[in-house]
Design a protein that fits this description.
Two copies of one chain form a homodimer. With about 180 residues, chain A is α+β, with helices and mostly antiparallel strands. Helices cover about 25% and strands about 35% of the residues of chain A. An eight-stranded antiparallel β-sheet of chain A has the order 4-1-3-2-8-5-7-6. The longest helix of chain A has 12 residues.
Chain lengths: ~180, ~180
């Protein structure tokens, strides 16, 4: 059993939206103001809320998990005052692939894990799954980093977006935020 | 985006409960009477309702999917008047495994796919995922078969329950039903 997390844009929350850019697919209404993140709850007066759930690993093998866990740092580092929330959807063609086909595109062809590891520990990351919850996006990825590392973060995104895996991405919104009091 | 399916026990529904047996873990209250199955809805007066969602394939490779699709028949066959609904949970240890470790246990060690294929087309099957929805079970599997094939169905379950994969099953309820009018 897993408890979902609600991401709610509106007047409250510890993060303030700096920008939102549509990278692929249709725009999304209601991104702006503050972002509140709460387990099992969305804000009733939110201009937009999206639910996601931390689930089991879908592609990483044991060696990759070990490498990730040795290199990564957690969320909430005092210096990591910039965040990015990236909602993504993939095509029906992606979801119809067999497990070995998705794994081969994810890593052997696109190097998703290998690329991400090179940006550790500067870029901290947490992945939420939305598709099985019936949301309009398939994933939410939350990133945190220091302002000085935003250029590196942009490089990470550029590498991933140039990969074969990204040819299956049908919708992507790149939201940047800064941590505020309260 | 996927829409969940609600399984509701109560006074209405096309299936009538014949028996319920706890195979592993704690019992569950409220199984009995009729079973109603509806997309995106549970019955408000249900004695028990469980939600599940049909999701993407998690372990099967392309060759296995091809083999399955060539051999299987759909739900709703007129002769398939017996059903079984089997809610299952797996341990935290299972969910903490890497993808390659779960795949190896599922197929290379436990032959989950290979066993299931030998019981096609007699035993039709549909898998629903519950864990990411926050339900008390991780999976629901729905089986349909003719009364004459119930012994074969019991053989299938015995094979799976003897596998290494089943050492990770912490809760399992075996519910048998028969199709009724309305």
């Amino acid at each position: 059993m897993a408890i979902w997390t609600g991401f709610s844009f509106g007047r409250a929350g510890a993060w303030s939206v700096l920008s939102a850019r549509v990278v692929a697919g249709p725009s999304v209404a209601g991104v702006g103001g503050r972002l509140s993140i709460a387990d099992g709850r969305t804000e009733p007066d939110a201009t937009l809320s999206i639910r996601g759930v931390v689930s089991n690993v879908r592609y990483a093998n044991r060696a990759e998990l070990t490498e990730l866990r040795a290199a990564q740092e957690g969320l909430g580092r005092p210096a990591a005052t910039i965040a990015s929330l990236i909602p993504i959807s993939k095509s029906d063609a992606w979801w119809a692939l067999a497990q070995d086909e998705r794994r081969a595109i994810f890593e052997e062809q696109s190097r998703h894990h290998s690329i991400g590891v090179r940006y550790l520990p500067e870029i901290a990351r947490k992945l939420y799954h939305c598709r099985d919850l019936g949301e309009n996006f398939d994933f939410l990825t939350w990133f945190e980093f220091a302002p000085a590392h935003e250029t590196r973060f942009d490089d990470l995104l550029a590498e991933l977006r140039a990969s074969r895996e990204w040819t299956y991405v049908t919708r992507e919104i790149d939201i940047r935020l800064t941590r505020v009091a309260g």
